[in-house]
């Protein structure tokens, strides 16, 4: 997975920008303007990460910042937000390890199936010193500061076919299944590791693709399946729990550096409070939604999860991704879990 020339150039200009825009931020403040914090995300405004940011983050920084979220990828397309922050066109995003891995391949360790064990493990990993070099690299080379880890949930396989047409027990049962995965190498690899034929597609196009049969299925946590109404156009959910998925709440390093110490402390506290609030709500929804989905007529069942775990883990360990993981890091991550 060599980094493209364009991405290397972007990294170089992001590092320069991180220095040059600090003065711009200070200028806005000196004129009594609030600091503009635009956030772009493909999430809907009813997604629990969005609700948490709207209710907990924005109000907590309102004295000095104007938090302006843009949902449903209405400001920047999914996967382009980091570039937008790096080039000074956006202040915040809810980014993913998969997106960061397109710049820094070692982030792929956090995209590997069956590595994170649960929401608490994600937090322990994010707050552990093992994350420091990852955070430093994103700040220094991309101009993006990772503030907090947000819980998206356990990703499950969600298919158009009924269980009678296709019952999934092991990865072999997904052979030939055209599974939509988000559009980066790390996501596509996960789809293949599950045994499926992955197709890249932006999140905002998934509903229509399922409705028209352009894809056979998609993977996301249950709260997303419900929030995005994918249950209206699918018939089964296979509880593979193949990725305990996270997103990072990210802010431009240049904007961060333009804040004074009290403002930085307020932004950090607001980010942590929003992440915690969103995590609690998402966990509650995850626990409650099986019943709702069954009421909607979907079959929801567990496959042979051990078979999926074995196949996915061995696919990663023999991949180019694993070759980019720092020595001993997987063991350290595992040791922070149960
Ligand atoms: C998705 O595209 O399936 C995904 O779940 C990937 C996540 O990293 C994140 O971008 C998420 O979409 C969006 O926030 C929409 O929920």
What are the defining features of this structure?
338 residues, alpha/beta, D-Maltodextrin-Binding Protein, domain 2, 9-stranded mixed sheet, 15 helices, 9 strands, globular, disordered N terminus, binds 3-deoxy-alpha-D-manno-oct-2-ulopyranosonic acid
Summarize the entry for a quick read.
The protein is α/β, with parallel strands linked by helices and 338 residues long. Helices cover 46% and strands 19% of the residues.
Task: Describe the protein's architecture and organization.
This protein has 338 residues and is α/β, with parallel strands linked by helices. It contains 15 helices and nine strands. Strand 1, helix 3 and strand 2 (65-70) form a beta-alpha-beta unit. The protein starts with a helix and ends with a helix. Residues 41-43, 47, 78, 94, 96, 182, 203, 220, 224, 247 line the site of 3-deoxy-alpha-D-manno-oct-2-ulopyranosonic acid.
Strand and helix layout:
Elements: H1 5-20, H2 22-30, E1 35-40, H3 48-60, E2 65-70, H4 81-86, E3 92-95, H5 97-101, H6 119-127, H7 132-142, E4 144-159, E5 178-181, H8 185-193, E6 197-200, H9 206-212, E7 217-220, H10 222-227, E8 236-252, H11 253-257, H12 261-295, E9 299-301, H13 305-317, H14 320-323, H15 329-335
Parallel strand pairs: 1-2, 1-3, 5-6, 5-7, 8-9
Antiparallel strand pairs: 3-8, 4-7, 4-8
Bound molecules: 3-deoxy-alpha-D-manno-oct-2-ulopyranosonic acid (KDO).
3-deoxy-alpha-D-manno-oct-2-ulopyranosonic acid binds next to loops.
Total domain count: 2
The assigned structural class equals alpha/beta
CATH architecture of the largest domain: 3-Layer(aba) Sandwich
- Write down the secondary-structure element order: HHEHEHEHHHEEHEHEHEHHEHHH
Helix share, percent: 40-55%
N-end to C-end Cα span: 32 Å
């Amino acid at each position: 997975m060599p980094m493209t020339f364009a991405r290397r150039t972007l990294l170089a200009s992001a590092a320069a920008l991180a220095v040059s825009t600090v003065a711009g931020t200070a200028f806005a403040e000196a004129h009594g303007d609030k600091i503009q914090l635009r956030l772009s995300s493909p999430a809907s405004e009813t997604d629990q990460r969005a609700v948490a940011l709207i209710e907990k983050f924005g109000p907590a920084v309102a004295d000095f910042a104007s938090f302006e979220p843009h949902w449903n990828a209405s400001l920047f397309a999914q996967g382009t937000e980091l570039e937008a922050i790096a080039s000074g066109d956006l202040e915040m995003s809810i980014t993913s390890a998969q997106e960061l891995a397109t710049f820094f391949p070692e982030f792929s360790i956090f995209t590997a199936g069956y590595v994170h064990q649960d929401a608490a493990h994600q937090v322990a990993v994010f707050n552990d010193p093992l994350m420091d070099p990852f955070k430093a690299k994103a700040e220094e080379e991309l101009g993006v500061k990772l503030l907090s880890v947000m819980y998206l949930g356990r990703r499950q396989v969600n298919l158009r076919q009924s269980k009678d047409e296709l019952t999934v027990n092991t990865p072999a049962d997904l052979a030939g299944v055209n599974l939509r995965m988000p559009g980066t190498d790390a996501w596509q690899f996960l789809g293949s590791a599950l045994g499926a034929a992955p197709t890249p597609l932006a999140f905002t196009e998934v509903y229509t693709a399922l409705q028209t049969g352009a894809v056979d299925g998609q993977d996301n946590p249950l709260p997303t399946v419900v929030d995005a109404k994918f249950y209206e156009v699918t018939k089964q959910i296979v509880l593979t729990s193949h990725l305990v998925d996270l997103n990072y709440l990210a802010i431009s390093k240049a904007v961060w550096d333009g804040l004074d110490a009290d403002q930085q402390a307020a932004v950090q506290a607001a980010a942590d409070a929003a992440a915690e609030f969103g995590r609690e709500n998402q966990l509650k929804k995850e626990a409650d939604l099986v019943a709702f989905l069954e009421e909607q007529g979907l079959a929801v069942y567990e496959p042979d999860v051990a078979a999926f775990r074995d196949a996915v883990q061995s696919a990663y360990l023999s991949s180019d991704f694993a070759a980019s993981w720092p020595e001993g890091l997987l063991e350290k991550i595992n040791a922070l879990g149960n």
